[in-house]
Specification:
- The chain contains four helices and no strands.
- The chain is mostly helical.
- It has one domain.
- Helix 1 runs antiparallel to helix 3 and helix 3 packs parallel to helix 4.
- The longest helix is centred in the middle third of the chain and has 42 residues.
- It is rod-shaped.
Length: 119
């Protein structure tokens, strides 16, 4: 699966996780209520919807920024490291990859370099 498709899928899941529980709760309350309760519920909720939508949108934007940062650090970092490892193993056996990124990625690179040096 391509990285861009994974990011879009992760953004969709983030949106569902943020809005799903609230929408489901509102739907269940609305379905369970009688007509008078529905009118009171709508009268209470409709004036507050723009503020709730704005807060949800700001939270979604913050979540996307965090998701993008994590993607840049993990997915794109691993793709860069894979490319340099291909260079090291294919063309120049003396070329070494500088471990960078989060600890998990640095450990993976060091492990791979040791196995390339042994081959």
């Amino acid at each position: 699966m391509k990285a861009k498709l994974r990011f879009i899928l992760a953004a969709g899941v983030l949106g569902l996780l943020m809005t799903g529980p609230f929408a489901l709760t509102a739907l269940l309350l609305f379905a369970d209520a009688k007509e008078a309760e529905r009118a009171a519920f709508a009268q209470f909720l409709v004036p507050r919807l723009p503020l709730g939508a704005l807060m949800t949108l700001l939270g979604f934007i913050a979540g996307l920024a965090l998701l993008r940062g994590l993607f840049q650090q993990y997915v794109h970092g691993l793709l860069r490291m894979a490319e340099t490892l291909r260079l090291m193993l294919g063309a120049n056996r003396n070329f070494r990859v500088a471990p960078e990124g989060p600890p998990e990625v640095r450990g993976t690179g060091a492990c791979r370099q040791r196995s390339g040096a042994a081959a």
